[in-house]
Amino acid sequence: MNHPPTIGYVTLGAEDHGAAQAFYDAVLATLGLKRQHEFEGWTGYGREGDASGQSVWICKPFDGQPARAGNGVMLGFYAQTPDVVDAFYAAAMANGGTDEGAPGMRPHYGDGWYAAYVRDPQGNKLACVRPPAA
């Protein structure tokens, strides 16, 4: 039996949609993701031709309350190479992100674990990781 991916999508709140779009356009492009959908204050990012439906969405919260970052919540992206981790971090820093841990080895997570940590303009924490080869 063919099962769908375990995680279908992630939604991140953003008060300044334009700033969020500029940030995610640049940062997610380093991972091969781009805008796939836009409607009424929602922007969805995914991989061209990917039928899995996995995506990242930015929008104002549906309940009308202010967007805020979750304490202890982090969205992690896998990278194919350490250079992609570096590019992800550089794009985040150049587009309104803040540093939560520059690219580098993280031996306390395992041998060969290379990662960078940032916050988007809204304060959501993101990781980009090149885990050790299996």
Can you describe this structure?
The protein is α/β, with parallel strands linked by helices and 134 residues long. The chain has a single domain, classed as 2,3-Dihydroxybiphenyl 1,2-Dioxygenase, domain 1. The protein contains 2 helices and 8 strands. The strands form 2 sheets. It has a 4-stranded mixed sheet, covered by helices on one side. Strands 5-8-7-6 form a 4-stranded mixed sheet, covered by helices on one side. Strand 7 and strand 8 form a beta hairpin. Helix 1 runs antiparallel to helix 2. The two termini are 25 Å apart.
State the total count of DSSP E strands: 8
Number of H- or I-type helical stretches:
2
Q: Structural class per helix/strand content?
A: alpha/beta
User: Any idea of the CATH topology?
Assistant: 2,3-Dihydroxybiphenyl 1,2-Dioxygenase, domain 1
CATH architecture name: Roll
Radius of gyration: 15 Å
Give the helices and strands as they follow along the chain: EHEEEEHEEE
Please report the first level of CATH classification, the CATH class. Alpha Beta
Shape: globular
Compute the separation of the termini in Å: 25 Å
**Number of domains in the coordinates?**
1
Low-confidence parts lasting 5 or more residues at pLDDT below 50?
none
Sheet-strand content, in percent, reads 25-35%
Average of the residue pLDDT scores:
92
Strand order of the largest sheet: 1-4-3-2
In CATH terms, the superfamily is 2,3-Dihydroxybiphenyl 1,2-Dioxygenase, domain 1
